[in-house]
Amino acid sequence: GVLKMKYIKKTLGIVAIPVICLLIMSAVCRFSGTALFTGFSTVQLYFRGLAYVLLLSLGVSINLHTGRFDFSTGAVMLIGGIVGAKIGYMSGGGPVAMILSAAVVGAVTGGVVGLLYVLLRLPPMIIGLGMTLIIEGIIAIITDGCKPVGFGADDSYYRFAVNPTAMIIICAAALLLMITFFHFTKFGYDYRALQTGQGIAVNAGVNEKANAVICYTVAGLLFGAAGAISVCSTNGVTPTINFSTIASMFACFLPLFFSQFINKFCNKQIAVLMGCVAYEFIQIGFGQISSVKAFFTSDVYKVVEAAVLVLFLIYMNNEDLILRKRKNYA
User: For site-directed labelling of 260, which of 54, 142, 238, 285 has its Cα 20 to 30 A away?
Assistant: First the structure.
C-alpha cells in the first residue's frame, strides 16, 4: 500500500511537467488551427531538438550545480561542431566520425578552460568570457575569417540529424555516460561530496582541482557533440564571433529549471532528460504556431519563453511557502 503510493507519487512527479507541457502545447496548437505533431517531420524535429538540448543541458548542469557558470559553452560547442565537420567531411568518415571528433575537440577545449580556471583562480565567469573570445578567435582562424563551413552536396549529415533512431542512441549514450560517471566512479563520489560541503570534502582528501578540470572536460565533451548535432541539423554553419556564441547556452535554462523540480523524484540525469522532453514539446509547439500565425515570430517566442522561465523561478523560490499554506488548509 504505502510503497505503491510512493512509487505512484514518484512516477507522477517525474512525468508531470512533460505531460503538462504536452497537453498545454497540444491545446494551444489546436486553438491556433494546427496540431502539435503534424507528421513524421515533426517527430524528426522533436528528437533532433531533444538530443541537442539534452547534451547541452547535461553539460551545463555539471558545472552549474557546483556553482560554476561557464560562458564559454557556446564557443566550445561551435569549435567542436566546426572542427568535427571539417574532419568528418575531409576524411569521408561521415556524421559518426564528425560527432566523435567534435566530442574530442570539445573535451580538450573544455579541459583547457578548466585548467585555466584552476591555475588562474579567477571567477568562472571571467574565465568563461575570456575563453569565449579566444575560442572564437581560433574559430575565425580555422574558418579562414568566418567563411561558411558546409558539407558540399553530401546530405548524409543532415539526414543523420533528422534520424530519430540516431538521436535516441545519442541521448541514451549521453545518459549512460553521465550516470556511470557520476554515480559509479570515484570522481562522481568526490563530485557529490564537493557539492554538499566543499571544505569538508577537501579536508577529507578530495582533490578539488582535479575534480574541476574533469568537470570542465566532461562538459566540453557533451558540448562538442551538441555542436556537431547543431551543425548537422542546419547542414553547415557560418560562424559568427564577438560573444555571439554566448546566447546558444540559454536554451538549456528552462529544461534545467524544470529538472530542479523533477529532481526531487529521481536522480539528476533522468530529471534533466525529463526537463528536456518537456522543453522540446514547447519548442515544437511554438514552431507549429509560428507556421500558421504570422504574428508569432521568434521575438514573440523569446518573450513567452522568458515569461515561463520567470514564472517557474517564482514558483521554485516560493515553493516551501506554497506547500506550507497548503498544509495549513488541509
Answer: 285
Cell 496548437 belongs to residue: 29
Q: Which DSSP symbol is given to 36?
A: S
What nine digits make up the cell of 246?
554566448
**Does residue 1 sit in helix, strand or coil?**
coil
CA distance 234 to 224: 16
C-alpha cell read off for 226: 551538441
> How far apart, in whole angstroms, are the C-alpha atoms of residue 174 and residue 193?
23
Q: Tell me the three cell numbers of residue 127.
A: 574565465
How far apart, in whole angstroms, are the C-alpha atoms of residue 59 and residue 64? 9
- For residue 328, pLDDT over 70 is answered with no
Instruction: Specify the length of the chain in residues.
Output: 330
DSSP states along 197-259: -HHHHHHTT--HHHHHHHHHHHHHHHHHHHHHHHHHHTTSB----SSTTGGGGGGGHHHHHHH
Judged by DSSP in three states, 149 sits in: strand
Give the span between the Cα atoms of 131 and 237, in whole angstroms: 21
Q: What's the pTM value of the predicted model, to 2 decimals?
A: 0.90
CA distance 247 to 226: 15
Whether 269 and 175 have beta carbons less than 8 Å apart is answered as: yes
Instruction: Name which of 207, 173, 165 is nearest 190 in CA terms.
Output: 207
d(CA 253, CA 275): 10
Q: b/e per residue, 224-247, with b = 16+ CB within 10 A?
A: bbbbbbbbbbeebbebebeeebbe
How confident is the model over 235-268, as pLDDT tens digits?
888 888 787 788 788 788 889 888 988 998 998 9
One-letter amino acid of 24: I
In Å, how far are 54, 78, 256 from 51, measured between CA atoms? 5, 16, 15
